[in-house]
Amino acid sequence: MPTPEQVTEALRAVIDPELRRSIVDLGMVRSIDIRDDGKVEVVVSLTTPGCPIRSHFQQGVARVVSELDGVAEVGVGFDVLSDDEKSNLQQALGRDRLPKGALAKVKNVICVASGKGGVGKSTLTANLAAALAAEGHSSGALDCDVYGYSMPRMLGVSGKPEVNGERKILPLDGPAGVKVMSIGFFLEPDAAVVWRGPMLHKAIQQFLEDVAWDELDYLLLDLPPGTGDVSMTLAQLLPQAKVLLVTTPQPAAQKVARRAADMAEKVDLELLGVIENMSGFQTPDGQRVQIFGEGGGQLLADELDVPLLGKVALSSELREQADAGLPLVLSDPGSPAAVAIRQAARGIVSMTPQALPVMQAAEPMAVPVSKPLSGTELKVIQG
Ligand SMILES: Nc1ncnc2c1ncn2[C@@H]1O[C@H](COP(=O)(O)OP(=O)(O)O)[C@@H](O)[C@H]1O
Ligand SMILES: [Mg+2]
Predict the structure, then answer these.
(1) Domain span holding position 46
(2) pLDDT tens per residue, range 180-217
(3) Is 203 a domain residue?
(4) Is there a domain that residue 375 lies in?
(5) What is the CATH number for 58?
(6) Is the same domain home to 47 and 170?
(7) What residues line ligand 1, using a CB cutoff of 6 Å?
(8) Lower CB density within 10 Å: C or N end of the chain?
C-alpha cells in the first residue's frame, strides 16, 4: 500500500497544461484517501466546475496513481476551489497570468519571433498556419504586431468578429482554414494605432483571454520585431508558449536574432527551432544567388542547440500570394518556397505534443554510469 506521501509524489507528474506546473504545486489536490482494500481516492480541485480539461486530469491522476505498488483501484473526484483559494492561486502565480481556462484547449502556442523587422515573420506565420491546417492540424493565427498587423491581409480575411453567448469574440475563418484574430478587424481601414505599453498589454491579453479559440492544435502568434513589451507580456501570460526564431541568412543577422533568443531564455520560454528566410534566389536560368549571404540560420541553430527547421528561398510568388491573401503553400504547394515551409510545418508537428500535455515527461531514468578510467593504467592490475 502506498503512503499519502508516495501518492503525492506520483501526482507531481500531473501538470496543468496552461500553467506548466504540477497540480500538487498549484494546491489543486484536495484530498487523498487510501483504503485497506487498495483503493485510492483522490479529489482534485478545479478552478471552474466546467473545466474543459477535467477528463485529462482524471486520466492523468488515474494513470500515475495506478502505477504505484499495492494500488488496486483509483477513484478520481472533483470539486471547485473556493473564491479565496482561487485568489491565492492567482496571487501565487503573479497578477499578470491569464485567468485559468482561457487557452485550456489549445495544445500548442508558438510565438514567431525575430530580432528585427522585415525578415518574414508574418509571411511565415501565415504560411505555416495554412500548411498545418492543410495537413489536418487545426490552427489559428493571432496578430500580436499591433502596429504592423498583417494577418488579415496575408490570410485573406476581413470583417467584424461577432461575440458569442458567453461574451467571447469569435475569430474569423479564412480561406486557408485558419482561425484569425487581429487588431485590424477592429480598426478603420489603414488607421494607425498609437497605443503605448499598457494598452498594448491589455489588447494582447484580451486577444488571448476573450477570444473563443476553443480547440486548436496550434495557435501561432505573429510577434512584432525585437524583444520589447509584447514579448514580455506574452511570456508572462503564456508560460507554455514556445518560440520559433526567424532569421535571414547573413551571418550578421544571426547576432540580432540571438537577442530574441536571449529574451526567450530570460523569461523561460522554450525555443523550438530556427527558420532561415530569404535564403538564396534562383534565377530563371537556374543559377543560385546568395543575395543575403549564407549560413546564418545554421549558425544560429547550432549556437542555440535547436534544429534548423527550414531554409525558405526568396520567392516573388511567396510575397505576391501573401499580398493576395492566399498563402503560397495553398496556391502552389509544389513551389520550392512552399515545399520548404511545409517541411518546416512537419518539423514543428514532430517536435510538439499532439495531445494536451497534462503529464509531465518522466524524469530520465538515473542510469548508473561507470566512470571512464583516467590516468595511466598500472601494469599490475591488468589481467
Ligand atoms: N522568402 C521571401 N521571398 C520574397 N519576399 C518575402 C519573403 N519573405 C517575406 N517576404 C516579403 O518581405 C516583406 C517583409 O515580410 P514580413 O513577413 O512582413 O516580415 P516581418 O513580419 O518579419 O516584418 C513582405 O513584403 C513579404 O512579402
Ligand atoms: Mg510582421
Answers:
(1) 4-93
(2) 999 999 887 766 666 666 677 788 888 998 999 999 99
(3) yes
(4) no
(5) 3.30.300.130
(6) no
(7) 114, 117-123, 150, 225, 277-278, 312, 314-315, 318-319, 322, 337
(8) C
Distance 185 CA to ligand 2 centre (A): 16
CATH code of the domain covering residue 315: 3.40.50.300
Q: Are both 77 and 115 inside the same structural domain?
A: no
> What's the mean pLDDT when you consider all of the chain?
86
The pTM of the full predicted model, rounded to 2 decimals, is 0.80
- Verify that 53 and 125 share a domain, yes or no: no
Supply the pLDDT for residue 305: 94
Ligand 1 pocket: which of 119, 123, 145, 245 to mutate (most atoms <8 Å of CB)?
A: 123
C-alpha distances out from residue 185 to 149, 225, 233, 293, Å: 10, 21, 21, 38
Query: For residue 382, what pLDDT is reported?
Result: 33
For ligand 1, the distance from its centroid to the CA atom of residue 277, given in whole angstroms, is 8
pLDDT at 325 over 60: yes
pLDDT of 91 reads 72
